[in-house]
Amino acid sequence: MSSTTETFPEIPRVQVDGSMDPQPPRRRWGRGQKFVLALLGLTVLAVFGGYGFLAYTESKIDRIEASELTSLNTLTAGSGDIVNVLVVGVDDRSTLPSDWEDTFGDFAGRRTDVMIVAHLVPGEAIQMLSIPRDLKASIPGHGTNRVNAAYVLGGPDLLVQTIQSETGIPINHYVEIDFAGVGAIVDSLGGVTLDFAYPGRDNKSGFAIDAGQHTLNGEQAVAYARSRHYQILKNGEWTSTSGGDISRTGRQQELLIAMFSQVTSPSSAFNLPSFLPTFADQITADEGLSLAMMASLGKDALTLKTKSIDAFTLPVKNSKGSDGRAYVVPVDATRGVIDAFLNGEPFPRP
């Protein structure tokens, strides 16, 4: 006698160009499979519902004291406003694992390599807006420079202040992570899966991949996301994808979307007890990013699908400054993109 079956949708794979694969045929699950899914669901519930576990996880976050990060806009609890989080990736080489290949350069200090403002539109979407690191900005007390110089000149506080003044986007919380941290988080998920239409490489970052679907480990994921000289093998020739830092922000967004897909996949539920403490241990955040807020945002985000992530890079064009520096500057479309982000509306696309 046959058992009752039920259908579940597949999570789409992320393509290298940022698009999603068409939905594959729906799979049918029997009672045994449904039991496994129920067990996975209980695992997720236990992780996010266990106060002791969340408290332990929060204790691993390296905190920036409120007195050192005064530029954040403080929200009134329960106001219903969208919470904007500035996620900053820094290129600190000093924390890289000793077993990683020596392809990350030998530069001292910490510089901002990634700047993404993200928020959750409750029940609708996660929006991510990448800020190009070469954006021309007026840095308070330091004159004109690239926006990422604010971090070197005055740390997170000056960076937040500069981004707020240049974009008009209020920043409510701050999260920082370095190369090694991203790699550790990817590894805690058991890797991250991407589809590559063509063989790819970047001789400087050390990344090399064949065409097809691949699960990248932490080191590979970081090398791919930080690639500035990415090439594909097409029609028998290695061709640059060009775009410089702007193309790189697309790869960074692609990696983040794929990581989200991995976290929300039923197959990754058993990795959550490892993933959450690893994530907490690898980030630096402001004191106001509380236990309650992280739990609430995490549970709300897990109700969304990968297709609900709206990622965009601030529209800019190249410009040469009177100081001899190469910058990128806003274009006509920039204001519309910022306004859409502020209002929690889909980004306008050509």
Indicate the topology.
Elements (H helix, E strand, L loop, with lengths): L5 E3 L18 E3 L1 H19 L1 H9 L2 E3 L20 E6 L21 E10 L3 E6 L5 E4 L3 E4 L2 H19 L5 E6 H10 L3 E5 L3 E3 L4 E3 L2 E5 L1 H8 L5 E4 L2 E4 L3 H21 L7 H11 L1 E3 L4 H11 L7 E5 L2 E5 L5 E5 L3 H9 L8
Parallel strand pairs: 3-16, 4-9, 6-17
Antiparallel strand pairs: 1-2, 4-5, 5-6, 7-8, 9-16, 10-13, 11-12, 11-14, 14-15, 18-19
Helix pairs in contact: 2-7, 4-5, 4-7
- Name the CATH architecture of the largest domain: 3-Layer(aba) Sandwich
How is the biggest beta sheet arranged?
Answer: 7 strands, mixed
Which stretches are low in confidence, meaning pLDDT under 50 for 5 or more residues running?
1-27
* Total domain count: 2
Estimate the global geometry from the Cα principal axes.
globular
- Provide the structure class: alpha+beta
Tally the beta strands. 19
Helix content: 25-40%
How many H/I helical runs? 9
CATH class category label of the largest domain: Alpha Beta
Describe this structure in words.
By secondary structure, this protein is α+β, with helices and mostly antiparallel strands. The protein has 9 helices and 19 strands. It has a 7-stranded mixed β-sheet with strand order 3-16-9-4-5-6-17, sandwiched between helices. A 4-stranded antiparallel β-sheet has the order 12-11-14-15. The chain has a two-stranded antiparallel ribbon with strand order 1-2. The longest helix is centred in the C-terminal third of the chain and has 21 residues. The N terminus is likely disordered.
